[in-house]
Amino acid sequence: MRRCDRCGREAIIYIRNKREALCESCLFLSIRRRAYSVLRRDLSDGDFAVVALSGGKDSSLSLILTKEFVEREGIDVRVAALTVDEGTSYRRASIEMAMKLTSQLGVEHRIVRMKEFHGFSIEEIREKKLPNERRTACTYCGVLRRQMINTIAREWGATKVVTGHNLDDLVQTFVMNLTRGDVSALSRFLSREPPSSSLVQRVRPLMYVYEKEVAAYCIAAGIPAHVGKCPLTQGMRIGIRRALDNMELRNPGFKLNLLKSAEKMISASRARLSEGIELRKCEICGEPTTERVCKACQLKAEIMKVIER
Length: 309
Ligand SMILES: [Zn+2]
Ligand SMILES: [Zn+2]
Hints:
The protein is α/β, with parallel strands linked by helices. The chain contains twelve helices and nine strands. It has helices at residues 24-42, 57-73, 89-105, 114-118, 122-126, 137-156, 167-180, 183-188, 211-221, 236-250, 254-273, 295-308; strands spanning 13-15, 20-22, 48-52, 78-85, 108-113, 160-162, 201-203, 280-281, 288-289. Strands 5-4-3-6-7 form a five-stranded parallel β-sheet, sandwiched between helices. It has a two-stranded antiparallel ribbon with strand order 1-2. α2 (57-73) links the parallel β3 and β4. The termini are far apart.
């Protein structure tokens, strides 16, 4: 049995980039230190923080740390949780986990069904042949869920939306946007000032924490959370995830270095990157978009064609 390099207790993880084995409590302290530095920077008195809680390990830990941070620091921030029910069978179990966690923590919790908000669930489109073959159910789910969370949180009065995105997620997104040449997305990457007042500022307490660390901690601590990825994940993200995992394996710390460089580069050139990119209101739903009709409405129109058939 390997011992914790800090305290000698039984280790549950070996952090390759730091060459350090850690036990459950030392791992938690290390995660907490990184999460608190983000929360300290991004939350302040008077904020209403809505945590986008899927019931998965990442958002569950994000909620736990945010609640704990607010109580310990004694700052005047209201914390609540918002769960989107996409209507897939995979989500059923994680929604139950989310309910268990919020009742344990005594956190106000809203669950909103995608079917009620958008008029259809992801389950309904999963089996259908979608008109755009380059898109997967994952694209529809991601875009439509993101829009729901922003709109509902904003109407609820939220000043911040806290997400569970970890270091691995963010590096994948950065590389995906680079590969696609999506300059508009790159200019907004990790921006702390939303480009429109209708977009609620994001807070990502786990942005400097590896996915592996979150998983090891949640399992060891018995946090009621779903561990594992959505089985519907497809497309480019899978290939990029594999390639990045491979790089990390050969060069421990690769992902963290990449994220830090991306942050530096983008924050230094944000103004140049966003030059000429204009945000306007979507002609259909009124949400901010760089196009005439927002991505969510474009995807919804595609889905409606398939469902009505
Ligand atoms: Zn220890
Ligand atoms: Zn729209």
